[in-house]
């Protein structure tokens, strides 16, 4: 009979020959668990990483349970995850990507019966791994492959990707490349290798952007390895007359800098309008993204962006890196990870039918636990949508009683779903502390924000439901399904008001306005990753909602010349739908002044207030983009000339008069 240490030794041999990774669950006393972890660390030839628990001497790198993402870009051959006290799904799925083929992941688990649905789900998943319980028979070893797995085939896809990246620079302009892959395929490394090879061949300035600079650490690592003597800092690598520089996504869209090649990593986590702006601004671009992924985005990015690119950049290329590099294909641990966190299911086909009787139903946690197929379908929809759906969302949905899942099934296929969270119902004392700035209770995003903004207890005392995610099957989109299920949600629940909060784009704003939601707050800072302002919208009959909407309109009209002076024109027009100018003039006087200026009389300085009042009142439209920038937002003549490609003030004022003439003749 094998001892535990002999079992580890033979399992490592199987892993090394197959270039696969295996997961082991240790259940028993802590001393026994740690002895086995130490013994395993002596058997592996590479580093050991540890996640959670207290740092042990056998681990070269330790991170607390929620910080696994910090080790992305590093590699290990033994990974110890201590699950006895806490569990973070995002962190686990991230750090598993650091484990190389031929390595082992050890999960330390108490083995005690767990309570909530999330803990039961995890316990059920761990049972699918190789479970070693103290004092009990060992599990069966995986079968030994008939021959060693060669790694040459694994690098073929990466080499092809490198060639395609370099072709973006050496080939015709305006032909972007979209590169997609699951984790472990060498996608980000390919960006770094291609950049270095280009720098060895020519003088070139490469700009790389990503929602998180940590995502592109492997890019800089691989480039530095090939460029001997390169000078490297956190944000830039210089080599001779070439460079690679990291710039945040919002600055890429708005900044001015030298760029021969733009690399956009984890592009699916960046709003589509920003990606479109990058395509328009830069003629040589590569968009790279993880799918099924740990960054929280899926194939929906590929579908939406691909459709737009094919229309606006007919010569674009798409390449998916299928074969893993860090481990062999059909890796057992990767299969377990995708199955456990519902990242391995493609959307089934579902043809839209106008005759379908769609009915939104709530799926409680016991139903989800006992019917994992339903949960899997809903998450397939969410992961495939352009949303930041993460493994932690799955765990929260199963564990947090305030989070609700609603779904619509047609012929046993989930065609739409909503994740929402209950808010409000707060005690008066807590609300007073929120108003005073002393408390900010977790899970009360909208309630707390509106209580603070209005200095009123009503939004906090009232019961409310915040829509966190809404997703519709791609084949059912553009058929008002989203509006329908939000209407059904309102009818099926008894909350005093509904709310939502998201990074606002014109498309999303328009959707929620059509659904009857009203803007009550716009954030004061852009999100560092997306470049979007966060917005709060609500729907209900409470009088304070009218007050909040009026307050927002007044503040937005005032701040659009300062805080929001760089906001997109379409978004300004959308946000101004509920607002009216606080300045008014006698109709005959206003018409006389505007007509005179449009025909070439008077001066801009004498009429700007009248033009702005007219635009605010009834003419906020993207057709008058220059008028909005100049008269409403008070941009300088130089800024307007640069924005609209005009020579100077004379040409700007000519277009301004032309737009005003069109307005007056409307």
Would you give an account of this structure?
The protein is an alpha/beta fold and 666 residues long. 42% of the residues lie in helices and 19% in strands. It contains 26 helices and 21 strands. The strands form three sheets. An eight-stranded mixed sheet has the order 9-10-11-8-12-13-7-14, with helices on one face. The longest helix has 17 residues, at 154-170. The chain is globular. The termini are far apart. Mean pLDDT is 90; it is low at 293-298.
Structural class: alpha/beta
Give the number of DSSP strands.
21
Largest beta-sheet characterization: 8 strands, mixed
* Count of helical stretches: 26
The percentage of residues in β strands lies in 15-25%
Overall average pLDDT: 90
| Poorly predicted spans | 293-298
Helix content: 40-55%
Radius of gyration: 28 Å
Please list the strands of the largest sheet in the order they lie side by side: 9-10-11-8-12-13-7-14
What is the straight-line distance between the termini?
90 Å
Shape type: globular
Would you summarize the structure shown here?
With 666 residues, the chain is of the alpha/beta class.
List the helices and strands and how they pair.
Elements: H1 4-18, E1 22-27, H2 30-43, E2 48-51, E3 61-63, E4 76-82, H3 89-95, E5 99-109, H4 117-126, E6 130-133, H5 154-170, E7 177-181, H6 187-201, E8 205-209, H7 217-226, E9 231-232, E10 236-239, E11 242-246, H8 249-254, E12 261-265, H9 272-281, E13 285-290, H10 299-312, E14 317-321, H11 332-340, E15 361-362, H12 365-370, H13 372-384, H14 391-399, E16 403-410, E17 413-424, H15 428-435, H16 445-454, H17 458-461, E18 463-472, H18 481-492, E19 497-503, H19 506-514, E20 518-526, E21 533-540, H20 543-559, H21 569-575, H22 587-598, H23 604-618, H24 625-632, H25 637-644, H26 649-664
Parallel strand pairs: 1-5, 1-6, 2-3, 2-4, 4-5, 7-13, 7-14, 8-11, 8-12, 12-13, 18-19
Antiparallel strand pairs: 9-10, 10-11, 15-16, 16-17, 17-18, 19-21, 20-21
Helix pairs in contact: 1-2, 4-14, 5-6, 6-7, 22-23, 22-26, 23-24
């Amino acid at each position: 009979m094998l001892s535990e240490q002999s079992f580890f030794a033979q399992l490592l041999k199987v892993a090394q020959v197959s270039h696969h990774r295996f997961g082991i669950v240790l259940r028993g006393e802590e001393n026994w668990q740690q002895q086995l972890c130490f013994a395993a660390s002596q058997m592996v030839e590479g580093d050991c990483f540890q996640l959670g628990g207290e740092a042990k001497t056998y681990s070269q790198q330790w991170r607390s349970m929620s910080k696994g993402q910090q080790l992305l870009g590093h590699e290990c051959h033994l990974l110890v995850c201590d699950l006895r006290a806490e569990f973070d799904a995002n962190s686990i799925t991230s750090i598993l990507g650091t484990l190389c083929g031929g390595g082992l992941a050890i999960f330390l688990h108490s083995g005690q019966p767990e309570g909530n649905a999330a803990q039961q789900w995890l316990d059920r998943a761990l049972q699918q791994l190789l479970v070693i319980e103290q004092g009990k028979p060992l599990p069966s070893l995986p079968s030994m492959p008939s021959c060693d797995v060669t790694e040459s085939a694994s690098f073929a896809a990466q080499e092809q990707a490198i060639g395609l990246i370099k072709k973006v620079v050496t080939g015709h302009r305006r032909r972007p490349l979209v590169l997609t892959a699951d984790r472990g395929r060498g996608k980000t490394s390919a960006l770094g290798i291609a950049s270095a090879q280009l720098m060895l061949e020519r003088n070139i300035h490469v700009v790389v952007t990503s929602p998180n600079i940590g995502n592109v650490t492997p890019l800089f690592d691989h480039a530095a390895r090939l460029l001997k003597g390169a000078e490297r800092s956190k944000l830039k690598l210089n080599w001779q007359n070439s460079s690679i520089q990291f710039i945040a996504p919002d600055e890429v869209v708005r900044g001015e800098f030298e760029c021969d090649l733009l690399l956009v990593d984890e592009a699916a986590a960046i709003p589509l309008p920003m990606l479109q702006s990058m395509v328009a601004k830069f003629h040589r671009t590569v968009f790279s993204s993880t799918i099924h992924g740990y960054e929280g985005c899926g194939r929906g990015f590929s579908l939406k962006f691909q459709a737009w690119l094919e229309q606006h950049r007919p010569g674009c290329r798409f390449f998916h890196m299928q074969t893993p590099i860090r481990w062999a294909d059909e890796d057992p641990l990767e299969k377990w990870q995708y199955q456990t966190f519902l990242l391995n299911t493609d959307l089934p086909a579902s043809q839209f039918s106008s005759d379908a009787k769609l009915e939104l139903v709530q799926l409680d946690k016991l139903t989800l636990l006992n019917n994992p197929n339903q949960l899997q379908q809903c998450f397939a929809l969410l992961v495939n949508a352009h949303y930041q759906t993460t493994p932690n969302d799955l765990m929260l949905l199963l564990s947090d009683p305030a989070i609700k899942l609603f779904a619509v099934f047609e012929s046993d296929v989930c065609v739409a779903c909503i994740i929402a969270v209950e808010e409000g119902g707060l005690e008066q004392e807590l609300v007073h502390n929120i108003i005073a700035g002393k408390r900010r209770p977790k899970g009360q995003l909208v309630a707390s924000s509106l209580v603070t903004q209005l200095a009123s207890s009503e939004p906090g005392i009232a019961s409310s439901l915040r829509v966190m995610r809404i997703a519709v099957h791609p084949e059912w989109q553009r058929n008002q399904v989203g509006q329908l299920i939000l209407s059904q949600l309102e009818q099926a629940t008894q909350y005093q008001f509904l709310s939502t909060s998201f990074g606002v784009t014109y498309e999303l704003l328009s959707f929620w306005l059509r659904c009857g939601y009203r803007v009550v707050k716009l954030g004061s800072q852009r999100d560092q990753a997306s470049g979007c302002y966060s917005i709060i919208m609500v729907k209900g009959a409470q009088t304070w909602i009218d007050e909040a909407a009026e307050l927002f309109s007044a503040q937005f009209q005032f701040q659009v010349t300062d805080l929001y002076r760089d906001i997109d024109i379409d978004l300004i027009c959308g946000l101004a739908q509920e607002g009216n100018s606080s300045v008014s003039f006698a109709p005959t006087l206003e018409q006389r002044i505007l007509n005179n200026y449009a025909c070439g009389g008077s001066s801009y300085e004498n009429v700007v207030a009248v033009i702005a009042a007219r635009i605010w009142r009834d003419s906020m439209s993207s057709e008058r983009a220059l008028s909005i920038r100049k008269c409403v937002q008070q941009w300088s003549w130089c800024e307007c000339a640069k924005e609209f490609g005009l020579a100077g003030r004379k040409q700007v004022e000519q277009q301004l008069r032309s737009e005003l003439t069109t307005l007056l003749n409307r």
